[in-house]
């Protein structure tokens, strides 16, 4: 306990059930050894991370003997690195962490060394420095304290009570902008280690047994999560890097398939049409002879002619008349560019709604208004933004649109029309500056809450190797 109140005497046998709540280990059998000074925990995949000023270690624990398929991922700050001599005289340099030990409702901090105890019958050894003054030892008995159960590892309560741990997170980005800096700042504030990785400087070792991602001549370490911020100009290569992380088994906030689909404006519109999501009337054709036909399919002027590769309002033209539309289309065709023709939603009056969807929820929305004389509302083109309250239908439309691409982080742009909300675009790498400033909300904090929930140290069941030859 942390106060000075006298505690009831605890009687320990030579083996006891204990809990390590700080590590998310609710039930563990430990050998009590007063002949050993240091306590030791059976740990696998031990790896350091974080800054040299505040180093951390992450590792996995197999809490149940003989059940190596049940894994608990853990992390903790390193308090020391110490040479420990085992009972057989072998010396080993071990990382030392601090964690709370709980027995029969009492808990107190202890130091634990991390080591491989595969040849030991107990997953943990409790040395004399971990034993309080009010503990008496009955060396001939076992389990003097209430017995715990391994059944806890198979319950939903385990996930709900799992502690938050420090994560190692990669931000795939080539830019030092507000969004990237906020991801680093907020992640570090929450105790995580966040590394910015230049996407184009990554390269891959593609093989069946050990797929890897390399960077600056070294294999990248295991990351708990990857936050992609892939620029439109490098979509194919960026998606390939994310695919490699997916192959390794790293949690990616947005998957490669969703990013690729959302960037292909034609395919994106086809997917949304299949999902019956409202959007402006859209037409596409390859032949110059079909110019008149695609204009007719969309409706009357004014019309929007949009390059398939357009971003931030670039390559988007408003044609006020049919003749102007034909001229723009001819010009784009002369450049051998692919484009869409869309109906111009007049009642939107140069305004759109950006909904930020994280983990299937709209966490913020802002109304963007174009600069004087510009029908485009993009903030990069001088538009302005303010917080806006959206309707239930608009909220549901934004969530459905993000779900079409299976994106956990998306900026969904809506137009308010007389026929209801119409989706202009689903952005897989939305910026945070405009929407955080206009709404006053901690959007990046919401993103980290989702990541922490998805990669919490709940037991992982690894597949056992097939017995078939």
TrEMBL record:
GO terms for molecular function: ATP binding; metal ion binding; ribosomal S6-glutamic acid ligase activity. Its cofactor is Mn(2+); Mg(2+). It comes from the Bacteria. Transmembrane segments: none annotated. GO terms for biological process: SOS response; translation. Keywords: ATP-binding, Ligase, Magnesium, Manganese, Metal-binding, Nucleotide-binding, Protein biosynthesis. GO terms for cellular component: cytoplasm. Residues 269-452 form the ATP-grasp domain. Pfam families: RimK (PF08443), Rimk_N (PF18030), Zn_protease (PF05618). In the C-terminal section; belongs to the RimK family. This is Probable alpha-L-glutamate ligase. It comes from Roseovarius aestuarii. The gene is rimK.
């Amino acid at each position: 306990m942390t106060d000075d109140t006298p505690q009831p005497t605890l009687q320990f046998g030579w083996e006891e059930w204990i809990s390590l709540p700080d590590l998310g280990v609710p039930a563990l059998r430990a050998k009590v050894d007063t002949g050993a000074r240091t306590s030791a925990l059976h740990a696998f995949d031990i790896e350091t991370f974080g800054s040299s000023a505040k180093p951390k270690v992450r590792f996995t624990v197999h809490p149940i003997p003989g059940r190596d398929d049940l894994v608990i991922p853990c992390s903790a700050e390193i308090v020391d690195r110490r040479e420990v001599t085992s009972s057989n005289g072998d010396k080993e340099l071990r990382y030392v962490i601090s964690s709370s030990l709980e027995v029969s409702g009492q808990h107190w901090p202890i130091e634990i060394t991390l080591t491989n105890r595969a040849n030991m019958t107990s997953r943990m050894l409790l040395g004399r420095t971990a034993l309080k003054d009010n503990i008496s030892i009955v060396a001939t008995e076992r389990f003097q304290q209430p017995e715990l159960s391994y059944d806890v590892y198979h319950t939903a309560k385990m996930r709900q009570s799992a502690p938050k741990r420090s994560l190692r997170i990669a931000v795939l980005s080539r830019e030092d902008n507000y969004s990237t800096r906020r991801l680093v700042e907020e992640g570090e504030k929450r105790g995580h280690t966040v590394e910015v990785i230049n996407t184009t400087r990554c390269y891959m070792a593609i093989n069946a047994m050990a797929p890897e991602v390399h960077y600056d001549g070294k294999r990248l370490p295991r990351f708990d999560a990857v936050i992609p911020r892939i620029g439109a100009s490098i979509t194919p290569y960026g998606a390939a890097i994310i695919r490699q992380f997916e192959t390794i088994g790293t949690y990616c906030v947005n998957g490669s398939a969703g990013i690729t689909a959302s960037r292909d404006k034609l395919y994106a519109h086809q997917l949304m049409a299949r999902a019956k999501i409202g959007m402006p009337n859209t037409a596409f054709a390859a032949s110059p002879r079909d110019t008149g036909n695609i204009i007719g399919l969309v409706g009357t002027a004014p019309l929007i002619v949009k390059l398939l590769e357009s971003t931030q309002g670039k390559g988007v033209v408003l044609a006020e008349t049919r003749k102007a539309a034909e001229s723009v289309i001819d010009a784009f065709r002369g450049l051998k560019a692919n484009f869409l023709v869309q109906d111009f939603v007049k009642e939107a009056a140069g305004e759109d709604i950006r909904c930020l969807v994280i983990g299937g929820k709209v966490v913020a929305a802002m109304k963007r208004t174009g600069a004087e004389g510009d029908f485009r509302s993009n903030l990069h083109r001088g538009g302005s933004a303010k917080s806006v309250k959206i309707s239930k239908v608009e909220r549901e439309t934004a969530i459905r649109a993000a779900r079409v691409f299976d994106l956990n982080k998306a900026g969904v742009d809506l137009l308010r029309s007389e026929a209801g909300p119409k989706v202009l675009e689903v952005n897989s790498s939305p910026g945070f500056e405009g929407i955080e400033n206009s709404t006053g909300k901690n959007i990046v904090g919401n993103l980290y809450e989702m990541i922490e929930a998805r990669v919490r140290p709940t037991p992982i069941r690894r597949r056992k190797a097939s017995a078939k030859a």
